[in-house]
């Protein structure tokens, strides 16, 4: 996938750099840091309250021995990791400056994408037990028990597990992990992150019963508005995504001015949000204040114009990834820089369409994320079956395409035959055991019927 790479000066070479006559050259020092990812997106996704919540939970554990669990949920790139890092940094500064000599908590952090439960247990033991030797092999159950015991009795601990949804298949481990919050001797602040909105409902009921948590949503202000009864959920979700992308672009390109600023020639200069790397930025001259207003007003006018709606709708139907949105915004900004007069709707649309066409967003991945649990298991079964049979009948792309588009009715009979061929053994969406050459697919009838409602018509008729 290609990306627009923005060098520090905001240019893309001789061909695409802003001309010296461009009226917006002065915006570079104020806009580029946001496009280069150096700003905490506080205004973008309303992280002020979320930051306060996470920090208070960490301080509660360190100062008062209060245990708690946070589930931080949001799209990739929406600020979950930044939120945690900033909360830890602020809490640590407060603890260090506190005269009560509070004990700093142990910080144990892992990403479930790259660390399996056993490796996580080893990391916990290494952090909390100086005598633990990770090179010595220990039985799985012994390592798990030791890690849980250390978490319960190890003093103030902040345990951070990102992408916790990758442990969904490890129900027993999650049960023990979540059960820690119910121990009387624990002093732990557990912080989990996930991109999966149905993470909790995907947990087995036994595990859900031990998962007591407070939800922190990094996209709450923009994309999770209350859904009125009787409204089309899919349509409302799509509109919320359009609103999110519109606000994303607007906040990244708007030059922030404090509310207290009267915009007079003798007033202090406008300031931007705190820069993560504390880089020094030039300040706007007082004579530029009305240019700032003009720039912001032009952006507001463009982003609210009806002509932009179709472009934004097309983009969010292809990608829901904040990293790509950031690159898209960079392309739009550079296009504005090349405008002879001022930003325009045409320049916006041209830059947006050109970037999306050149980046080839992964529609397959988007379709896969939209599948139900049963559909994902069935898809995995099909791919595994074909791999075992050395068959080219199915590939990942055409199976996903058949599920997501409804085209390719010729696959329907083949899918049905695979299901009849007993390729998976599932009970309530879990693999029970593998047989020598065939895996049985056993899904309760109510689930089959509910599952079939989400399939394309060409496949649904087979149920």
From TrEMBL:
Pfam families: AAA_16
Gene Ontology terms describing biological process: DNA replication initiation
Gene3D superfamilies in UniProt: P-loop containing nucleotide triphosphate hydrolases
Record-linked InterPro entries: AAA_16, ORC4, P-loop_NTPase
Domain of life: Eukaryota
Gene Ontology CC entries for this record: nuclear origin of replication recognition complex
Ranges for region Disordered: 1-21
Boundaries of every Orc1-like AAA ATPase domain copy: 43-172
MF terms (GO), sorted A to Z: DNA replication origin binding
Protein name, UniProt field: Putative AAA superfamily ATPase, Cdc6-related protein
Species annotation: Giardia intestinalis (Giardia lamblia)
């Amino acid at each position: 996938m290609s990306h627009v790479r923005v060098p520090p000066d905001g240019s893309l070479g001789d061909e695409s750099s802003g001309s010296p006559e461009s009226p917006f050259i002065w915006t570079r020092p104020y806009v580029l840091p946001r496009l280069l990812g150096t700003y905490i997106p506080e205004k973008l996704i309303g992280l002020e309250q979320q930051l306060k919540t996470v920090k208070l939970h960490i301080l509660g554990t360190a100062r008062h021995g209060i245990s708690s669990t946070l589930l931080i949920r949001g799209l990739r790139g929406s600020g979950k990791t930044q939120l945690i890092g900033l909360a830890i940094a602020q809490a640590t500064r407060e603890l260090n400056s506190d005269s009560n000599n509070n004990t700093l908590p142990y910080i144990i952090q892992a990403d479930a994408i790259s660390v399996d439960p056993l490796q996580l247990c080893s990391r916990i033991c290494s952090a909390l037990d100086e005598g633990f030797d990770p090179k010595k092999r220990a039985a799985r159950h012994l390592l798990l028990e030791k890690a849980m015991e250390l978490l319960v009795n190890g003093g103030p601990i902040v345990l951070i597990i990102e992408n916790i949804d990758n442990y969904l298949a490890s129900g027993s481990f999650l049960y023990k992990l979540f059960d820690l919050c119910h121990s009387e001797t624990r002093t732990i602040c557990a912080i989990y992150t996930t991109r999966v909105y149905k993470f909790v409902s995907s947990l087995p009921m036994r595990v859900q019963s031990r998962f007591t948590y407070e939800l922190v949503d990094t996209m709450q202000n923009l994309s999770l508005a209350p859904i009125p009864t009787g409204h089309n959920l899919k349509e409302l979700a799509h509109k919320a995504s359009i609103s999110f992308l519109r606000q994303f672009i607007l906040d990244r390109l708007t030059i922030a001015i404090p509310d207290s600023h009267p915009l007079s020639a003798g007033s202090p200069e406008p300031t931007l949000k705190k820069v993560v790397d504390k880089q020094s930025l030039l300040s706007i001259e007082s004579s530029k204040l009305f240019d700032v207003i003009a720039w912001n007003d032009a952006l507001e006018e463009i982003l609210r114009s009806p002509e932009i709606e179709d472009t934004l709708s097309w983009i969010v139907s292809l990608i829901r990834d904040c990293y790509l949105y950031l690159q898209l915004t960079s392309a739009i900004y550079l296009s504005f820089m090349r405008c002879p007069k001022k930003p325009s709707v045409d320049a916006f649309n041209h830059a947006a369409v050109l970037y999306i066409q050149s980046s080839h967003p992964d529609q397959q991945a988007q379709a896969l994320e939209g599948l139900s649990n049963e559909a994902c298991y069935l898809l995995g079964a099909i791919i595994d079956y074909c791999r075992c049979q050395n068959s080219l009948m199915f590939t990942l792309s055409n199976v996903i395409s058949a599920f997501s588009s409804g085209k390719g009715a010729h696959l329907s009979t083949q899918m049905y035959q695979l299901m009849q061929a007993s390729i998976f053994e599932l009970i309530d969406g879990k693999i029970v055991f593998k047989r020598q050459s065939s895996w049985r697919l056993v899904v309760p009838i109510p689930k089959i019927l509910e599952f079939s409602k989400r399939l394309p018509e060409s496949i649904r008729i087979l149920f």
